[in-house]
Specification:
Two copies of one chain form a homodimer. In chain A, a hairpin with a 2-residue loop joins β10 (202-205) and β11. The radius of gyration of chain A is 19 Å and the shape is elongated. With 228 residues, chain A is of the alpha+beta class. In chain A, α4 packs across α5 (119-145), α6 packs across α9 (214-221) and α7 packs across α8 (186-198). Chain A is 45% helix and 23% strand. In chain A, the strands form three sheets. Chain A has a four-stranded antiparallel sheet with strand order 1-8-3-6. In chain A, strands 2-7-4-5 form a four-stranded antiparallel sheet. A three-stranded antiparallel sheet of chain A has the order 9-11-10. Chain A contains nine helices and eleven strands. The interface between A and B is large, with 49 and 49 residues. Chain A binds a DNA duplex (30 and 30 nucleotides) through α8.
Amino acid sequence: MGIADQLAVIPLFEGLPSEHHQTLARIAMTRSYQKGQMIFAEGDEGTGFYIIQSGRIKVFKISPEGKEQIFHIFGPGESFGEVAVFTGQGFPAFAEADAQSSLLFFPRQAFVALIRKDSSLALNMLAVLSRRLQKFSALIEDLSLKEVPARLAAHLLYLCEKDLADNKISLDISKGQLASLLGTIPETLSRIMSRMSRQGLIRMKGSHITILDRQGLKDIATEGKKLT
Amino acid sequence: MGIADQLAVIPLFEGLPSEHHQTLARIAMTRSYQKGQMIFAEGDEGTGFYIIQSGRIKVFKISPEGKEQIFHIFGPGESFGEVAVFTGQGFPAFAEADAQSSLLFFPRQAFVALIRKDSSLALNMLAVLSRRLQKFSALIEDLSLKEVPARLAAHLLYLCEKDLADNKISLDISKGQLASLLGTIPETLSRIMSRMSRQGLIRMKGSHITILDRQGLKDIATEGKKLT
DNA sequence: CGCTCCGTTGAAACGGTTCAACCCACGTGG
DNA sequence: CCACGTGGGTTGAACCGTTTCAACGGAGCG
């Protein structure tokens, strides 16, 4: 399958006329990364942005003491690093391959030139950034307004929705990473999960989680009920 | 001064040919709000976005228990509510007039039509959203990775930079609001500020703050040093 | 004068982190 | 095949920063 065909099915470029996919494919470059390899660091100049063909990318920040907060884990078809392209202020976070990954890189100059010509591409881009802004709003809300049990409950329900899985979730990231994604540490996550099990809200077996009491989790997610 | 002239000097529309300012002025509607009046609520349908002519707008979320986290306080020339225009998913937060304010409202449909025609407007918009995304990144980082003294120190230094004020800052919002902006509560803010005074980092007199030890604040902002 | 609103201060409670120990699955090399 | 080390996950106890609750002070105002 050619690159243009891949581009046609990702959110950022869907709905564009196919000759645009050709043009986009022409300016894209393929890059491969090993697990653990850094793609860019906070403050690096934003020379372009990336789309994931395969693999998984972790975007995060690190505190002076070394604690890491994962902002997002991106999978195939998603894009990242667009922000720096438009602000010209360098990347605001780190990006690292969380698994062997293959990416498409779109150089800043060439891409901006394309946007300048085609406003429907610009509109798609605006939609993607807006959606990300909404996600960030939710994350900020969670971090500042809710405690960890609520964030975990919400995340579990989210995973369940996303995978259309019938109450059965298999974590595709380590619990340590999940902790960082929720803005906490493995120990705390572990304790809260065992409390949830003890109360019959979930069942846990390694990285497999079964939701037993959906309503109970919802109550906790909205902080209508507390986890004793 | 006509609306078109006002539009010419705000970031979102600067650099556009003046006939575009005319067009934009034509689709804009003026709206006035009393202090405390709500502009939109979380979840409201995003029928358009706003630009501030005068006054001040507070954008925030509220937890189930009523605690509020201020996301941003916007002043004249700034825009807000754009996100909902492009996601079509409703506003992600509340907006309320923090003072008697006059706003320009741009209806969704008409504005999107303009963007579709003029890609340089789209590029400006992309830049604005990208910058906001960067701000959110910083806020998330602060909330999850730093403690309150660091956030306060960073904010004071930021205010000082912004106003080009030589170490003298006059808070234009209440300390309660500042607390919410920093993701904490008035009591905690008060305690930390008095600790900072006691250590000779700042001097405080009502809403006037003088920075006495810039380097000391920087050390605390980066958590290289702690506030005893 | 007395009211309210905002800011401040103190004591107690809480949620989360830190530090340390431990378990277990897994892979490696003797 | 087993001993060993390693890394992820779990558990306990002490600790720490922040919040909560309550009380109080001062500024502004009818």
